[in-house]
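Sequence only, no structure available. Ideas?
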Amino acid sequence: MQLLDTGDILYLETRNRMLYYHTATQEYAVRGSLAGAEKQLAAYHFARCNQCYLVNLRYVKGVQDDLVLVGEQRLEISRRQRTAFLAALAAYVGGAL
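Reply:
I predicted one. Tokens follow.
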């Protein structure tokens, strides 16, 4: 078992029924759902950019077209999640200034 500080998590990814926590230095795999993680991390400024990714808004470096740059990774923003994700990002940036 590994405890992670929410501030260290760049983003979460789901694939093959596994949930992957990506940090700057390592990736941690656990069994779980992105929906469950989304509920747990909602208070820590995480937002879903598509059905596979949950992004820590603190680490968003920019948005270009349908991609969000998180750390060194480019993650796709789905059409379905675009409005909600950009609204969450704008609220976060507006609140962080």
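The first strand starts at residue 9 and ends at 15.
Hope that gets you unstuck.
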